Amino acid sequence: MKKNTILSKKIIREINKSNNNFESKxxxxxxxxxxxxxxxxxxxxxxxxxxxxxxxKLVIETLLKTYFEWKxxxxxxxxxxYLAIWLYNPRMLKSEVVCAIEEKIPxxxxxxxxxSKKKNEFxxxxxxxxxxxxxxxxxxxxxxxxxxxxxxxxFPKEEYQHKEQYYEDQKLYKRVxxxxxxxxxxxxxxxxxxxxxxxxxxxxx
Length: 205
Description:
The chain is an alpha+beta fold.
């Protein structure tokens, strides 16, 4: 059995287990204190490999189920709120359901992501048998950005366990630095941001 298939089956078991344990339940107390709350596939957040078939379907199903359950609870608050599915593609295991209230709403509405220059054409066939549910949402395309810190670029070759990884990393760093997608300076250290794919922000129509 291929490595990705084995890993997919493991993640499927763990998502089902977390769903059965109500780990995606909205924490109203946390929301009221922090003004935001999110659900993510915690242990596998950001893992990168080709997600398809049953795992892709389960991820999207879980996001949809969580969204509708949270919407039901948020409507009871009788106040304005932000609620959206953040569907990453291809880094689908970074996907989240996010809600916010009060002073945190403007950040999530307007500042959380860079706009995409690509066409805003959402693929309703991302998951088999779920296109009808996905049609209930308005989807806006944003850019999924990853980051490289200056200390990573300067990390000594002799500290790498595998030298091949050092050369691969240096090739990536060179491409990112040359293209200068977006650079920020934090605490006197440069951070280079570069695109990894799309984030589709989904809200009920």
